[in-house]
């Protein structure tokens, strides 16, 4: 069995701590801290303790407040308190709030203290063993789901992996309380696709247009995902985030009934942005123009969150460097990567011969929006050739 971390005794009386060292030497591994501030320094430095025994009456911070902080810094540590009779009411209140496993009256008999600490060590073993079991179950279950998704459609799984990386990048900076939860939600967001017929799944992977009935089936996949994820221990919050991933900020979208605005869980609001961002970003380069395009549908996104994510993720596009490329750079691109200000060197034409935009013009916001509508209904000749960057650009209005 793995050896437990040491026990930490905290008291502002150095003589009392010295006496404990003499009495308890050889009974179990332990350390001491003179006062609450020194104890907190040890925890903040990353030291691990199975049990923390603290005196109630100390300067700077009493035992209840100290152990409440310890519970935040080291949730697995079993907390105990030494208290005088006059402090019993406070101690009972602390126990009821869940910070403290046991308390001892001062003066405390050595045998009682030793027996209490040993009980605390057993409690620590139970906590950590259960946690390890749950984590192994969680990891195994997630691994099965992600492998199923990867086998089902590698392209969709690849986009989910990229969304997870974006989540990992932004989580702490947007103040997300459990970053692992956000990344996992992004990874499992498309798991509902396992319920789709192969032909719909293939068209999704190839980003081909869907028929209305097919779009409705796809729209409901977050409900399937929630049911799958809810069966895994500790993933109830992740299941809720995935279920609401297509709920728009204004309350529209799926599901039809539910929260709106900032009442939508933060994780779901993040996924709403990344689901759409993933449809227009081709490579690892995320640029301002991508966010400009998202803003064409402001009803979908939390505007403050969108600004935060743009500030974190958006990079400078080297193809727009006017110093290095004073006449711009030419690119063969797919239509989903077309950006505002691109200069068309070829026509944008459907496969049935309809020209939507003619070459020799700069692409405007309105034209991008119009093109996105047409892409739902028609297939186009791709790739097209554009010139990007260079001289000042003025969006033209060519096209049929």
Task: Spell out the key features of this protein.
400 residues; alpha/beta; Rossmann fold; Hypothetical protein af1432; Molybdopterin biosynthesis moea protein, domain 2; 3 domains; 5-stranded parallel beta sheet; 3-stranded antiparallel beta sheet; 15 helices; 10% strand; elongated; disordered C terminus; Cyclic_di-GMP/3'3'-cGAMP_PDE; phosphoprotein
Overall average pLDDT: 85
The radius of gyration computed from the alpha-carbon positions, rounded to a whole number of angstroms, is 29 Å
Q: Per DSSP, what share of the residues sits in E-state strands of 2 or more residues?
A: 5-15%
Whole-Å distance between the termini?
75 Å
Number of strands: 10
Helix run count: 15
What characteristic shape results from the CA principal axes?
A: elongated
């Amino acid at each position: 069995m793995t050896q437990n971390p040491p026990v930490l005794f905290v008291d502002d009386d150095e003589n009392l701590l010295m006496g404990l060292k003499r009495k308890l030497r050889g009974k179990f591994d332990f350390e001491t801290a003179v006062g609450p501030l020194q104890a907190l320094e040890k925890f903040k430095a990353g030291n691990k303790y199975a049990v923390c025994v603290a005196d109630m009456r100390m300067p700077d911070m009493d035992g209840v407040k100290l152990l409440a902080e310890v519970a935040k810094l080291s949730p697995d540590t079993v907390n105990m308190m030494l208290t005088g009779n006059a402090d019993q009411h406070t101690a009972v209140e602390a126990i009821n709030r869940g910070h403290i496993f046991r308390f001892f009256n001062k003066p405390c008999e050595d045998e009682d203290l030793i027996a209490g600490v040993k009980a605390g060590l057993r409690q620590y073993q139970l906590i950590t063993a259960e946690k390890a079991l749950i984590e192994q179950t969680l990891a195994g279950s997630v691994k099965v789901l992600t492998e199923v998704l990867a086998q089902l459609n590698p392209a969709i799984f690849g986009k989910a992996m990229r969304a997870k990386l974006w989540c990992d990048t932004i989580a702490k900076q947007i103040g997300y309380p459990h970053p692992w939860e956000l990344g996992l939600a992004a990874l499992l967001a498309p798991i509902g696709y396992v319920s789709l017929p192969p032909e719909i799944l293939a068209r999704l992977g190839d980003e081909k247009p869907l028929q209305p009935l097919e779009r409705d089936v796809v729209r409901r996949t977050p409900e399937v995902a929630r049911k799958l994820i809810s069966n895994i221990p500790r993933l109830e919050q992740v299941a809720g985030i995935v279920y609401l991933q297509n709920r728009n900020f204004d309350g529209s979208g799926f599901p039809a009934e539910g929260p709106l605005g900032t009442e939508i869980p933060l994780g779901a609001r993040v996924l709403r942005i990344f689901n759409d961002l993933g449809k227009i970003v081709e490579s690892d380069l995320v640029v301002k123009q991508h966010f400009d395009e998202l803003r064409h549908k402001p009803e979908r996104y939390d505007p403050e969150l969108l600004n935060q994510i743009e500030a974190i993720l958006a990079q400078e596009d080297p193809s727009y460097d006017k110093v290095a490329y004073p006449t711009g750079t030419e690119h063969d691109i797919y239509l989903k990567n077309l950006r505002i200000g691109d200069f068309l060197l070829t026509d944008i034409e459907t496969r049935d011969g309809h020209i939507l935009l003619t070459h020799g013009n700069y692409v405007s916001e309105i034209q991008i929006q119009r093109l996105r509508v047409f892409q739902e209904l028609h297939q186009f000749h791709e790739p097209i050739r554009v010139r990007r960057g260079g001289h000042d650009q003025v969006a033209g209005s060519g096209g049929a």
